[in-house]
Amino acid sequence: MTKIITIEEHYQLPHKETMTAAQQKATKGNNPTQIDELSMDFDKKIAYMDKYGISMQVLSNSGPSGAMIPDKAQAVAACQHTNDTLAAKISKYPGRFGGFAVLPMTDPEAAAEELARTVNQLGFQGAMIAGLPFGHYLDEPQYRPIFAEAEKLNVPLYLHPGMPTKADRERFQSPSYDDRVANILSMAGWGWHEEAGVQMVRLICSGLFDQYPNLHLISGHWGEMVPNFLERLDLMTGVAKVNLDRKFSDYYKSNVYVTPSGMFTKPQFALTLAEVGPSHIIWSEDFPYVLAKDQVAGFLNESILDDAAKEQIGHRNAEQLLRLN
């Protein structure tokens, strides 16, 4: 049985909900009470992990957070509180949890400082950035201090989708179905992944990895569509003469790690494996939004991969990239 570490797993602090009722329904499914309990109750997390063979979860905040508060001082204070609270929680369960910081994205310089604080003082493994900060893509120059600090600290940044805007949802609305369908399509059905994939494409095309060659990013949901288009992206960026030192796919295969985010589907696994290889896949369940249970370990252990590749994907890549040893 392969040791399993999962790294796109979530918690949230009790807070006043800021999402609409329709968004809550779309993100939490038919059992929002269970989602809330498993997000906040760490004893229940441990019981679930022990039952289904998960050695460790690396946790990130899934609720509204200080990352998107417009006021800079308030954003910094809220993020520090969230990160300190997570650190205090995981300290009670040695060896079972890691942490990704939430960063005050309204102030990139402060975000870089908070990344350094959480890594150096709280022992976090990096940070997760969700969505487009105030509608801005991360390839814009004001965000470079965050990437510079991540490379300096030798920690990755996990790029996660964010909540869609009203305009995003309207792209998927149609008189032939109700708004619940539009909400699903603008989020987990398609829109989230399109947005996060464009985020990654723009970052690579911006020369991010030429500037920070030792930086690593993590992309969930089997790479948010990007692995499907690596050859096409090589062709198109070559035609467009994007000012990069290497092919698009070279950066992706060396600087990006991909996780399933609980999408335990054989065709997507096979394609991602063919594109990036077992050395750049890390396991994740997207707990508690996905409760794959026995499949978390079973999907990997029952695959046709040899034992060495299973160990790489199941835990060794996470241990190396996140310095979990």
From TrEMBL:
GO terms for cellular component: cytosol. Keywords: Lyase. GO terms for molecular function: carboxy-lyase activity; hydrolase activity. Pfam families: Amidohydro_2. GO terms for biological process: secondary metabolic process. InterPro entries: ACMSD, Amidohydro-rel, Metal_Hydrolase. It comes from the Bacteria. The keyword Isomerase does not apply. Residues 45-324 form the Amidohydrolase-related domain. This is O-pyrocatechuate decarboxylase. It comes from Lacticaseibacillus camelliae DSM 22697 = JCM 13995. The lineage of its organism: Bacteria, Bacillati, Bacillota, Bacilli, Lactobacillales.
